[in-house]
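Lab notebook, bench 4. We co-purified these components, and the gel suggests they stay together. Before we commit to crystallization screens, I want a quick structural picture of the whole thing.
Request: model the full complex, all chains together.
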Amino acid sequence: EAQVTQNPRYLITVTGKKLTVTCSQNMNHEYMSWYRQDPGLGLRQIYYSMNVEVTDKGDVPEGYKVSRKEKRNFPLILESPSPNQTSLYFCASSPSDRGPYNEQFFGPGTRLTVL
Amino acid sequence: AQSVTQLGSHVSVSEGALVLLRCNYSSSVPPYLFWYVQYPNQGLQLLLKYTSAATLVKGINGFEAEFKKSETSFHLTKPSAHMSDAAEYFCAVSHQAGTALIFGKGTTLSVSS
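Here is the predicted assembly.
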């Protein structure tokens, strides 16, 4: 089944404890992206990747890192999480390097709480 | 810069009534427009998209949207609401050379029996 998977789905952590949220897609998509969703704010892009080893900042990149060493994986790293990073996170992928022009396929989301 | 405004954070309709969710966009280049739906505890699913072909776009589950350049609008409609349509709906804009989808803040649709 074609899908985007994220792990973990739920995570409660404490301020300053490094964490990684994994994202993997099995559709051989070139474009991948991370969004955060907050009530009343919609989805905002954190980072995106047009292809392997090519990443760039979105609208809200502060406090996050990403890497794209393989086409299928695009992990989101929080080196020192803070409470304002408590949010619902979505990974998405798209079949071409003009990602947003095409349909984006979303993962199920990761709900992160930072205490 | 591109932006999206969704009018009304909450819309309530009765089962069988018309659904109208409003979206206005701002874009200095020809836009590509999308409607996504998010059911509770799920990711986003594409309902329909406009990419400069026909201005009336039909999507899944009986939804459709009309691109009106003069009004910079892309409103989502469904003739007859069903209980299963209750969800959050997001309008989004991009363009051909864009690197991101720009989302609106979302509209929660409630359907009562």
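Chain A has a mean pLDDT of 92. Worth comparing against the SEC data before the next meeting. The radius of gyration of chain A is 13 Å.
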